[in-house]
Amino acid sequence: MKTLQRFGILLFGMALGISSCTKENTKENYQQQVIFATEAMLASHTLAQLTLTYLKGIHDSVLLADNFVEKDGAFYYLTQQGGNYQLEIKYTYSLLDEYDRWRNGIIKVAITGGLHEDNSLASFNFDDFYLDQNIWFDYTHQKVSAGTYTLRQLGEQDGNLRYEQTVESFGFYPDTLGSEISISNLSTYEWVRAGNSNYYNPADQLNINGSSEITTKSGDLVKSDALGTVVLSPSSCIYFRAGEFNLKFENIKPDAGRVVFRTTQSCEHIADLELDDLQFLVNLVFPHHIDD
Q1: β-strands 121-131, 68-71: how paired?
Q2: Can you tell me the distance from the alpha carbon of 56 to that of 8, in angstroms, rounded to the nearest whole number?
Q3: pTM listed for this prediction
């Protein structure tokens, strides 16, 4: 009888050891999903930031009056040909933008159908623009690229302007190792005004809904769908303040997860990643390449 008791205790102890090891191994087994989720969220932030740079420009009272303004470290030039416009956003030097990311070069935007007219279309050109690379310190730089990057004004709803964004194969390099992250996206942006003015107000916010396909630095595909509304209000926080994303991973198990951005009073650079019954943190500190 005592032999059976000892055997039972031994089995119970082995079971506890196996359970503990399984939990630790499970955490390690999910690290690839954490990396992919982080890169997918970085790509989603990048599109929102660049689109907001344009929207802040075309709603700037000085630019609309004088066709020129110096804003957020960039020189904005607006020209008109008939009913069409050309906006040039020029970063003369490598500098850290309001999102703590390096920018250098020129973003050109061709606007057809009027500047603030419904159904007008803004087409972005990044042929001479660098992101996340300080060209004074990094000697291997890669330009941002995009097959398609457009923003169409849809009209007003409840007093807020709405836009449809279409992006195909937007690529950027978040480090100096030559590994690209690429994103294609179809989303709706709602410009929520803080007051009654049509001009940009720092308290304005951008509400985002849509779907994306992201190719990670390792070449793996992640599909992302925004659940509800994702909020970007850069005057109070450079990261998404609220919202959730469903993620679908290819060729890896588990192949599904959910990223949740916390609705808090403080500005947090982390989001929660839910995978099965486990929770992880996604660190969204934006990259820049200079030693502080």
Answers
A1: unpaired
A2: 70
A3: 0.87
